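Field reference: sequence -> structure
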Amino acid sequence: MIGDFGKLLHHNFKRLTDAGCKHIQIDEPYFTPVSDDEVRWAVDAINLSIDDLPDEVHVTVHICQGNYAVGADYDGQIGHRYFDKGRYKADLVCKIECDGYLIEHDMTPHYQHCLGSKQLGVGAVDVQSPNVETAEQVVERLKAHKWLAPEQTVITSSCGFNHLPRHVALGKLRAMTEAKAILNGNATRTKA
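Structure field:
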Protein backbone atom coordinates (compact mmCIF):
# COMPACT_ATOMS: atom_id res chain seq x y z
CA MET A 1 0.00 0.00 0.00
CA ILE A 2 2.83 2.45 0.74
CA GLY A 3 4.09 1.88 -2.80
CA ASP A 4 0.70 2.96 -4.12
CA PHE A 5 0.97 6.12 -2.04
CA GLY A 6 4.41 6.78 -3.55
CA LYS A 7 2.93 6.37 -7.05
CA LEU A 8 0.10 8.77 -6.23
CA LEU A 9 2.53 11.38 -4.92
CA HIS A 10 4.70 10.89 -8.01
CA HIS A 11 1.70 11.56 -10.24
CA ASN A 12 0.93 14.75 -8.30
CA PHE A 13 4.56 15.90 -8.27
CA LYS A 14 4.80 15.38 -12.04
CA ARG A 15 1.69 17.51 -12.53
CA LEU A 16 3.18 20.22 -10.33
CA THR A 17 6.51 20.21 -12.16
CA ASP A 18 4.74 20.17 -15.53
CA ALA A 19 2.96 23.32 -14.36
CA GLY A 20 6.31 24.97 -13.55
CA CYS A 21 6.87 24.10 -9.88
CA LYS A 22 10.59 24.20 -9.02
CA HIS A 23 10.48 23.40 -5.29
CA ILE A 24 8.82 20.46 -3.54
CA GLN A 25 8.89 19.96 0.22
CA ILE A 26 7.70 16.68 1.70
CA ASP A 27 6.75 16.65 5.39
CA GLU A 28 7.36 13.35 7.15
CA PRO A 29 6.52 13.17 10.86
CA TYR A 30 6.75 9.45 11.51
CA PHE A 31 10.44 8.65 11.09
CA THR A 32 11.16 8.54 14.84
CA PRO A 33 8.20 6.68 16.39
CA VAL A 34 8.15 3.77 13.92
CA SER A 35 10.45 0.80 13.35
CA ASP A 36 13.50 0.84 11.10
CA ASP A 37 11.66 -1.37 8.59
CA GLU A 38 8.77 1.09 8.41
CA VAL A 39 11.23 3.92 7.80
CA ARG A 40 12.86 1.91 4.99
CA TRP A 41 9.43 1.43 3.39
CA ALA A 42 8.69 5.15 3.71
CA VAL A 43 12.09 6.02 2.21
CA ASP A 44 11.35 3.71 -0.74
CA ALA A 45 7.94 5.35 -1.23
CA ILE A 46 9.41 8.85 -1.09
CA ASN A 47 12.14 7.86 -3.56
CA LEU A 48 9.45 6.48 -5.86
CA SER A 49 7.47 9.72 -5.53
CA ILE A 50 10.41 11.90 -6.61
CA ASP A 51 11.90 9.53 -9.19
CA ASP A 52 12.70 11.12 -12.57
CA LEU A 53 11.54 14.62 -11.66
CA PRO A 54 13.32 17.28 -13.74
CA ASP A 55 16.86 18.08 -12.55
CA GLU A 56 15.98 21.72 -11.88
CA VAL A 57 13.34 20.73 -9.30
CA HIS A 58 14.69 21.11 -5.76
CA VAL A 59 13.22 18.50 -3.39
CA THR A 60 13.54 18.72 0.38
CA VAL A 61 12.16 16.55 3.16
CA HIS A 62 11.12 18.12 6.47
CA ILE A 63 11.62 15.71 9.36
CA CYS A 64 8.75 16.92 11.54
CA GLN A 65 8.74 16.22 15.24
CA GLY A 66 5.55 18.03 16.15
CA ASN A 67 4.71 21.70 16.35
CA TYR A 68 1.50 22.31 18.23
CA ALA A 69 2.83 22.68 21.77
CA VAL A 70 3.56 26.33 22.39
CA GLY A 71 3.18 27.74 25.86
CA ALA A 72 1.81 26.42 29.11
CA ASP A 73 -1.69 25.90 27.71
CA TYR A 74 -0.40 23.36 25.21
CA ASP A 75 2.64 21.86 26.91
CA GLY A 76 0.55 20.29 29.64
CA GLN A 77 -1.72 18.62 27.08
CA ILE A 78 0.49 17.03 24.46
CA GLY A 79 4.01 18.35 24.82
CA HIS A 80 6.35 19.52 22.10
CA ARG A 81 7.87 16.85 19.88
CA TYR A 82 5.05 14.41 20.24
CA PHE A 83 6.48 12.58 17.22
CA ASP A 84 9.89 12.32 18.92
CA LYS A 85 9.65 8.78 20.24
CA GLY A 86 12.39 6.24 19.75
CA ARG A 87 15.64 6.39 17.80
CA TYR A 88 16.30 9.34 15.50
CA LYS A 89 16.96 7.54 12.21
CA ALA A 90 19.06 10.01 10.20
CA ASP A 91 21.10 7.11 8.80
CA LEU A 92 17.96 5.77 7.10
CA VAL A 93 16.47 9.17 6.25
CA CYS A 94 19.65 10.06 4.34
CA LYS A 95 18.83 7.31 1.85
CA ILE A 96 16.12 9.56 0.42
CA GLU A 97 17.37 10.75 -2.96
CA CYS A 98 16.41 14.38 -2.41
CA ASP A 99 18.38 17.63 -2.39
CA GLY A 100 18.17 18.33 1.32
CA TYR A 101 16.55 17.88 4.70
CA LEU A 102 14.87 20.43 6.98
CA ILE A 103 15.34 19.65 10.67
CA GLU A 104 15.30 21.09 14.16
CA HIS A 105 18.60 22.66 15.25
CA ASP A 106 19.49 20.15 17.94
CA MET A 107 19.08 17.20 15.55
CA THR A 108 21.93 18.43 13.32
CA PRO A 109 24.62 16.15 14.85
CA HIS A 110 22.66 13.08 13.73
CA TYR A 111 23.47 13.98 10.11
CA GLN A 112 27.23 14.44 10.48
CA HIS A 113 28.22 11.02 9.16
CA CYS A 114 25.44 10.41 6.64
CA LEU A 115 24.55 13.74 4.98
CA GLY A 116 27.00 13.46 2.11
CA SER A 117 26.73 16.41 -0.28
CA LYS A 118 23.07 17.18 0.41
CA GLN A 119 21.83 20.40 1.98
CA LEU A 120 20.71 20.62 5.59
CA GLY A 121 18.12 23.17 6.61
CA VAL A 122 19.01 23.86 10.23
CA GLY A 123 16.07 25.11 12.29
CA ALA A 124 18.11 27.84 13.95
CA VAL A 125 15.08 29.81 15.15
CA ASP A 126 12.77 28.08 17.58
CA VAL A 127 9.08 28.32 16.74
CA GLN A 128 8.25 26.86 20.14
CA SER A 129 9.53 30.03 21.80
CA PRO A 130 7.75 33.39 21.60
CA ASN A 131 11.14 35.09 22.10
CA VAL A 132 12.68 36.53 18.94
CA GLU A 133 16.28 35.44 18.45
CA THR A 134 18.97 37.91 17.47
CA ALA A 135 20.90 37.41 14.26
CA GLU A 136 23.96 36.71 16.40
CA GLN A 137 22.17 33.89 18.22
CA VAL A 138 21.20 32.33 14.89
CA VAL A 139 24.81 32.60 13.64
CA GLU A 140 26.09 31.03 16.86
CA ARG A 141 23.71 28.09 16.50
CA LEU A 142 24.84 27.50 12.92
CA LYS A 143 28.56 27.87 13.65
CA ALA A 144 28.27 25.29 16.43
CA HIS A 145 28.13 22.65 13.68
CA LYS A 146 31.69 23.06 12.44
CA TRP A 147 31.47 19.92 10.29
CA LEU A 148 28.63 21.35 8.19
CA ALA A 149 29.91 23.19 5.10
CA PRO A 150 28.46 26.69 4.56
CA GLU A 151 27.34 25.81 1.03
CA GLN A 152 25.32 22.91 2.45
CA THR A 153 23.68 24.97 5.18
CA VAL A 154 20.21 26.44 4.79
CA ILE A 155 18.98 28.77 7.53
CA THR A 156 15.42 27.93 8.47
CA SER A 157 13.05 27.73 11.41
CA SER A 158 12.42 24.59 13.46
CA CYS A 159 8.93 24.36 11.93
CA GLY A 160 6.10 26.63 10.74
CA PHE A 161 5.13 30.04 12.13
CA ASN A 162 1.35 29.58 11.81
CA HIS A 163 0.71 29.68 15.56
CA LEU A 164 2.94 32.67 16.36
CA PRO A 165 1.80 36.29 16.52
CA ARG A 166 2.68 38.11 13.30
CA HIS A 167 5.26 40.42 14.93
CA VAL A 168 7.09 37.42 16.43
CA ALA A 169 7.12 35.54 13.12
CA LEU A 170 8.42 38.62 11.28
CA GLY A 171 11.09 39.14 13.94
CA LYS A 172 12.28 35.55 13.56
CA LEU A 173 12.36 35.92 9.76
CA ARG A 174 14.36 39.13 10.15
CA ALA A 175 16.85 37.36 12.44
CA MET A 176 17.38 34.64 9.83
CA THR A 177 17.87 37.23 7.06
CA GLU A 178 20.35 39.22 9.14
CA ALA A 179 22.20 36.03 10.13
CA LYS A 180 22.62 35.18 6.44
CA ALA A 181 24.05 38.66 5.83
CA ILE A 182 26.50 38.22 8.73
CA LEU A 183 27.60 34.81 7.46
CA ASN A 184 28.10 36.31 3.98
CA GLY A 185 30.25 39.12 5.42
CA ASN A 186 27.59 41.80 4.95
CA ALA A 187 26.44 42.62 8.48
CA THR A 188 23.77 45.22 7.75
CA ARG A 189 20.74 45.56 9.99
CA THR A 190 17.20 45.75 8.69
CA LYS A 191 14.65 48.04 10.30
CA ALA A 192 12.11 46.52 12.67
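Note: The mean pLDDT is 87.
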